[in-house]
Design a protein that fits this description.
Elements lengths: L2 E6 L7 H14 L3 E5 L2 H6 L3 E4 L26 H13 L2 E8 L1 H11 L4 E6 L15 H22 L2 E6 L6 H9 L4 E3 L7 H13 L5 E6 L7 H13 L3 E5 L11 H19 L5 E6 L2 E6 H6 L6 H10 L2
Parallel strand pairs: 1-2, 1-4, 4-5, 5-10, 6-8, 6-9, 7-8
Antiparallel strand pairs: 2-3, 10-11
The structure holds 6-O-phosphono-beta-D-fructofuranose.
The site of 6-O-phosphono-beta-D-fructofuranose has 9 residues, from loops.
GO cellular component, one term: 6-phosphofructokinase complex
Main location: cytoplasm
Function: Catalyzes the phosphorylation of D-fructose 6-phosphate to fructose 1,6-bisphosphate by ATP, the first committing step of glycolysis.
């Protein structure tokens, strides 16, 4: 019987389990054997394989994290490492591999496909930093986690007339900051894609203070180009505006938690589609969602696309926070 392998790689994201469940159940439905590969490409090289059945993925659709665990692996980045991986997969009779992760994980899948392994990538990252898909699995849940935190911080911010900086994840992509900032009614949103000077933030604070609003929420993406990061911004605001500033770094809280309905449904559709593509004999493809339709495209094409920043939403956020 032909076997399909599945692994999760890179940073985990809520909804990965729902995707694993969809892959395993669809593959078994069509008569395939499925191996779960633990700890991503590291586990592939260490042969951490476990045969999955219908009940291995029972009771996981609502769970955050990934039951298959995840890691980053330097050995797999070498040609020798990948040749070893192909040999191991052959020994297990695994012809196809489903990789759930971000761009680095997809590059690994593409390189494996060049060595004859059929691969399909499913986008799983809270960053929403893949250009070819409107949403990645985990983004919606992380956004809701951030909104929940902003709401709580806003309560205490208003009680104390403070400026609260909320630092969110996003090394190169400001989607989490932008979308959560808009939904959380942030006064200022700072993202890696757009430059903003501290003087602009100060003048905005003064404008809102003049109309009687004494507290303010600044949502700052971790990768934003602001001198000294959150602490630098705090110091600048303290000196220039004499503001009472606090910083909250949300950190890995954003990576955990039960996935939202949106992420569960997206993950289920993408997992199901990934197996269907393998059955059709397709390889070196990624699945995603565009204009509310499930799509698939070549990994190279997907990775060469440049992520478009939502300038309209960014401008709208500025108007709504005057
Ligand atoms: O999953 C992506 C991401 O959340 C980035 O936004 C963040 O910088 C990074 O992962 C941190 O990952 P880790 O702590 O696992 O290295």
């Amino acid at each position: 019987m032909k076997a399909i392998g599945i692994l999760t790689s890179g940073g985990d994201a809520p909804g990965m389990n729902a995707a694993i469940r969809a892959v395993v159940r669809t593959a078994i439905y069509y008569g395939y054997k499925v191996y779960g590969i633990e700890k991503g490409y590291r586990g592939l090289l260490d042969e951490e394989f476990v045969e999955m059945d219908l009940s291995s993925v029972g009771d996981i659709i609502q769970r955050g994290g990934t039951i298959l665990k995840s890691s980053r692996c330097d050995e797999f980045k070498t040609a020798e490492g990948r040749e070893k991986a192909v040999e191991i997969l052959e020994n297990y009779g695994i012809e196809s591999l489903v990789v759930i992760g971000g761009d680095g994980s997809f590059t690994g899948a593409k390189l494996l496909s060049e060595l004859g392994v059929k691969t399909i990538g499913i986008p799983g990252t809270i960053d929403n930093d893949l250009a070819y898909t409107d949403y990645t699995i985990g983004f919606d849940t992380a956004m809701n986690t951030v909104i929940d935190a902003i709401g709580k911080i806003r309560d205490t911010s208003s009680s104390h007339d403070r400026v609260n900086i909320v630092e969110v994840m996003g090394r190169n992509c400001g989607d989490l900051a932008l979308y959560a900032g808009v939904a959380g009614g942030a006064e200022t949103i700072v993202v890696p894609e757009r430059e903003i000077r501290t003087d602009e933030i100060v003048s905005k604070l003064r404008t809102t203070q003049k109309r009687g609003k004494k507290h303010s929420i600044i949502v700052l993406a971790e990768g934003a180009d602001i001198e000294g990061g959150a602490l630098g911004l705090k110091n600048a605001l303290t000196v220039k505006d004499k503001a009472d500033v606090r910083i909250t770094v949300l950190g890995h809280v954003q990576r955990g938690g039960s996935p939202s309905a949106f992420d569960r449904i997206l993950a289920s559709k993408l997992g199901n589609k990934a197996v269907e593509l393998l059955i059709e004999g397709k390889s070196k493809r990624v699945v995603g969602i565009k204009d509310n339709k499930i799509i698939d495209l070549d990994i190279d094409d997907a990775l060469s696309m440049e992520k478009e920043f939502d300038q309209d939403l960014y401008e709208m956020a500025k108007i709504l926070s005057i």
